[in-house]
């Protein structure tokens, strides 16, 4: 990997020297089908012509290409010796002219890791499917280029494909004599070019709109998936959300969608959630639901569709100059995804999901040793790859939500409109956006940026209440604290809500005040004289980004009446705050689990319920004192089974509790219940045990020795599909056997035969929390191999292995010491690798602190 890296300094130097006029890329993908000869990787021919200018004639530079071989290189009509100019990742370009033409004829490799041109063979019917995935810098695995976001150019793609295939790219394509030729794109960055090819199932629709100037905008729409998933493909709902999103963004952006058609491909073995390639958005095919799912899954898919659509403006039309300002696209898309979800679709409670789920991701990332400002210091491509994190996405989106309140929604949107028009098809930095927002809002954006975009860490806000003798509020203050490592105290616009129980048994808000919190202590004068509250919620309505704390009275109220809170957003905020307290070792894990067991069954928001399930499982596995772990597991399993039987017939809650029963099963009674639901000897009215739920039930049975290889093979015969094979691999890896674990380790660590999806499935099955003793020998092995894995494997697989195989279940001081020893003896390891290990170390240390808190609770 080091040879494939690119530093920010190198990119800036090249951008100052070169400007690109255009690319012509010709790919021959006929080799994707049929047998493969030779021992090397399966390859395809890639011929690239790049026309570019050089500001300093006679200077030298380089083009990027990662390929097994280069057949020919020509620069300005001069044939160059590939052996002399190509080192496996770069092509040396010397004695450049003012105007240049580079032609590279290469043999590029199909990918099995989701990077570059990914090739997938569907086990169900033997069909081959291709798609590309480039972010941040894998277009160079498919064609020679200048791989950095600020060297934009128009592209013309030409693709020769196997007979019977259809090919898609960013522009509209036409086929003649087996060759697909695509319309030239607008100037775009390398990482958002795209090719999708194969016998995909393809559905079409159309979006039409009359613009303000009276012209008619027509956008052809398409959606596709593998033929094997076609029976499950609800394209009508995908198109519905797509049209609603296009309406919303046209209403608010005053800049018509600029990239012609709008195709959306749901592709197999995808590394990401989705990718915003203009005109050809790609998604992971798990967004096509093979079984019954809850409303939260449909909401999540709609959010991703809208997130990617927002990128057409924030990221594709206007692109960050370098990955330092990745937030200029990802934070905006994350915010706009929720903003448009609530404003344009049926998912009007989207801000609840944002507060409960997206912010939880941000809070975790912002407390890691690798936390960074929203606008980050990205030294190279490896840094960039790891910065697609909770800070860049969810914290950035949270900060933008605050900015809308700070600057005003109209001023914010007018700033966006000016930003698009001023920088269309160009590249920007932080200052470019701040300048237009200052114009439209009249606010000092520099001070706001310093506080929120240019510093790291999350503040905690805690209420202090002093009462008068008559029981009314004498003074209510908000205390702000920051971690020692990131001591910045920020300005917050918050709503402080006062709640009390009513005669009807509900917990209701009876007073609220909005105020600006600054410094260590802020008095909320407007609430003086109010009746004494039973609960104070200092970030009511979720206006700011902070960790919410409670005073003693409020915490006591939540212990007794959390389920009585009628406002679903307030309830979600309280749950999130309680979970943060558990992670911070301020609330024993047993207390959080007790709250979930007592009140989760009354939760009406299905997304919040599913988040509570994940948190409760984590509390039992990671934050519970080891001596109480078995008891916590039993309590959760018994409570989950009770809630499953009590849930409404056919309800989303019933399905969510059924999945939770499988995740926390730990006793014979649990396994008997799962087995009986699988074989039909027991049924629960309304619960359909479809194929996806069957696999969910089988994994815990396999992990606890109640389903052997023969039983898992029988299930695969029932579901011999690509999805079924991934489930099968995961369940096989979950079995409690030394031989099984050794085989999994060898397949993932010592071999590169598995695809990215099967690596992911194997790791997920391997790391079972109930198998701590079985996994213990792999802690030492992990530290012995990770540097080699990082060096030898692609960065995606390296990330999967380093994160997924960290011995987190060996949660002892010894594992922490071993981690520290590795870090101390590998100070020269790749910074991105060290970051991953540091993050895992922090999670482990946090778990140990939580266990100590739980043990001390008596």
Question: How would you describe this structure to a colleague?
Answer:
This protein is α+β, with helices and mostly antiparallel strands. The protein is built from 28 helices and 28 strands. The chain has an eight-stranded mixed beta sheet. A five-stranded mixed beta sheet has the order 15-16-17-19-18, with helices on one face. Strand 16, helix 3 (235-253) and strand 17 form a beta-alpha-beta unit. The longest helix is centred in the last third of the chain and has 26 residues, at 831-856. The mean pLDDT is 96.
What does this entry show, briefly?
With 858 residues, the protein is of the alpha+beta class. 43% of the residues lie in helices and 20% in strands. The chain is globular.
């Amino acid at each position: 990997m080091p040879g494939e890296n690119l530093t920010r300094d190198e990119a800036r130097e090249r951008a100052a020297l070169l400007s690109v006029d255009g690319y012509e890329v010709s790919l021959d993908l006929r080799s994707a089908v049929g047998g493969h000869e030779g021992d090397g990787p399966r390859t395809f021919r890639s011929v690239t012509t790049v026309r570019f200018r050089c500001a300093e004639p006679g200077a030298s530079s380089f083009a990027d290409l990662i390929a097994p071989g280069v057949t020919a290189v020509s620069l300005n009509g001069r044939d160059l010796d590939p052996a002399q100019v190509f080192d496996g990742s770069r092509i040396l370009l010397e004695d450049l002219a003012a105007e240049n033409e580079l032609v590279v004829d290469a043999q590029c490799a199909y990918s099995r890791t989701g990077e570059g041109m990914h090739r997938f063979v569907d086990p169900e019917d033997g069909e081959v499917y291709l798609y590309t995935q480039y972010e941040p810098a894998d277009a160079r695995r498919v064609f020679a280029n200048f791989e950095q976001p600020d060297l934009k150019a128009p592209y013309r793609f030409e693709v020769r494909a196997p007979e019977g295939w259809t090919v898609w790219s960013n522009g509209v394509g036409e086929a003649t004599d087996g060759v697909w030729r695509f319309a030239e794109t607008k100037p775009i960055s390398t990482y958002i070019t795209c090719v999708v090819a194969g016998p995909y199932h393809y559905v079409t629709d159309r979006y039409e709109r009359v613009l303000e100037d009276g012209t008619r905008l027509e956008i052809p729409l398409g959606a596709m998936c593998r033929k094997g998933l076609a029976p499950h493909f609800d394209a009508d709902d995908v198109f519905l959300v797509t049209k609603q999103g296009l309406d919303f963004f046209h209403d608010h952006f005053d800049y018509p969608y600029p990239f012609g058609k709008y195709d959306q491909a749901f592709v197999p073995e995808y590394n990401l959630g989705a990718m915003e390639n203009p005109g050809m958005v790609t998604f992971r095919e798990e967004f096509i639901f093979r079984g019954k799912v809850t409303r939260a899954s449909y909401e999540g898919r709609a959010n991703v569709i809208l997130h990617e659509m927002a990128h057409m403006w924030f990221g594709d039309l206007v692109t960050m100059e370098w990955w330092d300002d990745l937030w200029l696209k990802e934070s905006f898309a994350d915010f706009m995804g929720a903003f448009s979800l609530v404003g344009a679709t049926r998912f009007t409670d989207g801000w609840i999901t944002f507060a409960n789920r997206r912010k939880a991701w941000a809070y975790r990332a912002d407390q890691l040793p690798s936390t960074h400002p929203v606008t980050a210091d990205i030294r190279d491509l490896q840094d960039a790859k790891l910065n697609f994190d909770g800070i860049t996405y969810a914290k950035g989106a949270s900060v933008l939500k605050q900015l809308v309140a700070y600057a005003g929604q109209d001023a914010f949107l007018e700033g966006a409109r000016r930003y698009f028009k001023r920088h269309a098809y160009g590249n920007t930095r932080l200052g470019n956006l701040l300048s237009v927002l200052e114009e439209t809002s009249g606010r000092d954006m520099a001070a706001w940026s310093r506080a929120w975009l240019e510093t790291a860490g999350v503040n905690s806000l805690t209420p202090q209440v002093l009462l008068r003798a008559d029981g009314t509020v004498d003074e209510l203050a908000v205390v702000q604290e920051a971690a020692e490592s990131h001591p910045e105290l920020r300005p917050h616009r918050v709503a402080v809500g006062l709640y009390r129980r009513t005669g009807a048994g509900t917990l209701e808000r009876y007073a609220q005040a909005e105020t600006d919190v600054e410094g260590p202590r802020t008095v909320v004068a407007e609430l003086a004289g109010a009746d004494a509250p039973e609960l104070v919620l200092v970030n009511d309505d979720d206006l700011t980004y902070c960790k919410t704390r409670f005073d003693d009275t409020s915490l006591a109220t939540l212990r007794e009446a959390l389920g009585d809170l009628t406002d679903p957003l307030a309830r979600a905020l309280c749950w999130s705050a309680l979970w943060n307290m558990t992670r911070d070792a301020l609330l024993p894990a047993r207390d959080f689990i007790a709250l979930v067991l007592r009140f989760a069954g009354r939760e009406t928001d299905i997304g919040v319920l599913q988040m509570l399930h994940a948190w409760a499982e984590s509390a039992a596995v990671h934050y519970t004192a080891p001596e109480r772990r078995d008891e916590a597991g039993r309590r959760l399993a018994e409570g989950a089974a009770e809630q499953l039987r009590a849930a409404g017939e056919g309800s989303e809650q019933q399905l969510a509790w059924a999945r939770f029963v499988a995740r926390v099963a730990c006793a014979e009674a649990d396994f008997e219940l799962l087995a009986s639901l699988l074989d039909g000897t027991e049924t629960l009215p309304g619960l359909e045990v479809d194929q996806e739920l069957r696999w969910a039930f089988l994994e815990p049975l396999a992990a606890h020795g109640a389903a052997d290889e023969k039983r898992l093979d029988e299930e695969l015969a029932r579901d011999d599909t690509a999805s079924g094979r991934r489930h099968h691999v995961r369940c096989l890896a979950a079995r409690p056997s030394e031989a099984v674990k050794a085989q999994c380790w060898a397949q993932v660590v010592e071999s590169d035969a598995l695809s990215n999806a099967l690596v992911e499935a194997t790791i997920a099955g391997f790391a079972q929390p109930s198998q701590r003793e079985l996994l213990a020998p792999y802690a030492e092995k992990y530290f012995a191999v990770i540097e080699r894995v990082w060096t030898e494997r692609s960065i995606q697989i390296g990330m999967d292995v380093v994160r997924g195989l960290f011995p987190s279940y060996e949660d002892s001081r010894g594992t922490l010491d071993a981690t520290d020893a590795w870090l101390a003896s590998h100070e020269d390891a790749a910074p991105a690798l060290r970051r991953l290990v540091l993050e895992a170390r922090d999670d482990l240390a946090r778990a140990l602190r939580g266990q100590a808190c739980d043990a001390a609770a008596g």
